Amino acid sequence: SAAKLRFDGRVAVVTGAGAGLGREYALLLASRGAKVVVNDLGGSHVGEGASTRAADVVVEEIRKMGGEAVADYNSVIDGAKVIATAIQAFGRVDILINNAGILRDRSIIKTSEQDWNLVHDVHLKGSFKCTQAAFEHMKKQNFGRIIMTSSNSGIYGNFGQANYSAAKMGLVGLANTVAIEGAKNNIYCNVIIPTAASRMTEGILPDMLFNELKPSLIAPVVVYLCHESCEDNGSYIESAAGWATKVHTVRGKGAVLRPALEEPVTLEYVQNVWSKVTDMSEATHLNAIAEASGSLLEVLENLKSNDKDAVEDSFSFGNR
Ligand code: NAI
After folding, report:
1. How far is the CA of 213 from the centre of ligand 1 (A)?
2. What is the pLDDT of residue 205?
3. Which of 51, 115, 258, 304 would staple 104 via disulfide (CB 3.0–4.6 Å)?
């Protein structure tokens, strides 16, 4: 029987908390003692209109169960205003869950510039603006937990979601750098890749799946990532249906594209070693950009020192 994880004294901002996943995050955080800013613009799932109702209903739910919360009706695009609500109401911000989102699904040919821009503004720019505003406070207090919300649509692509996929993969890149910049100040940034029944996925997910994909099953994973005891930084966590896993990028072993340093890289050589370039049987995960550039230095060193074995090992192909 582990001690209950509490958030007493912590202030959490949850964007898009008027419905779906965000609402569950807000409710769970508040039930564990956090003071919560329930941000929601209250528009439609395609980003039209605005209303105070979405945020107000969740604030009321939290207050009824004895928790503390305030509503914020700004668009996340005005991130500084969202964070200002936390500072005005509670004097600090410890946790930011970037969750607000919309869809404008269209095939690539039919995606208008407006659909592209609005989806990017809400997901990517909105997360940037809120994070930038919160980061300042987190740095001063030497504590922060930030969540970016990505999607399998970004990781794998999904028909009709060019704008959304691009924005969701952009959030992975944003999280990678925020994680690095925050580390020394105990500001950790992680990515959630959820699949949940909400108005966003209604009619998209198969009915049988839909009923089992309750947002409440994901909330404990995201809220755990926001706890001071969680040491993860820069992780991508996929969760749904009461299951979760870490997701990694991997890199193959690769192949050298020329026999010696003085030699050019030819098209034919590339064609010859292509199966090695794309062979993932010895793929590994790299932890940092330095490891990527470090391995390039190694390739050059091997070519320079004409270390036959090392070069052979990295570029040899069948008929040599
Ligand atoms: P939802 O539509 O129920 O909730 C999103 C909330 O964000 C809504 O209440 C909406 O009013 C609010 N919102 C939209 N634009 C806003 C803005 N500019 N400023 C402030 N609030 C705004 O959808 P759901 O499913 O709960 O999605 C939450 C997040 O999870 C989104 O970022 C979504 O892209 C992501 N996601 C959801 C998946 C799912 O299976 N439900 C899959 C992958 C990612």
Report:
1. 15
2. 82
3. 115
Which CATH number covers residue 202?
3.40.50.720
Catalytic annotation, pick one of 25, 73, 164, 269: 164
Residue 73 falls in the annotated catalytic set: no
CA of 197 to the centre of ligand 1 (A): 11
User: What pTM value is reported for the model?
Assistant: 0.95
Domain count across the chain: 2
Ligand 1 lining (C-beta closer than 6 Å): 15-16, 18-22, 39-43, 45, 47, 54, 75-77, 99-102, 122, 126, 149, 151, 194-196, 198-201
Domain assignment of residue 106, given as a range: 11-247
**136 and 182 housed in the same domain:** yes
As given in the structure block, the two tokens for residue 310 are 């090392």
> Predicted confidence band at 318 (pLDDT cuts at 50, 70, 90)?
very low
Instruction: Output the CA angle 158-159-161, nearest 5 degrees.
Output: 70
* Residue where a domain stops, chosen among 207, 228, 247: 247
As a whole number of Å, the CA-based R_g of the chain is: 23
- Cβ–Cβ under 8 Å, residues 119 and 112: no
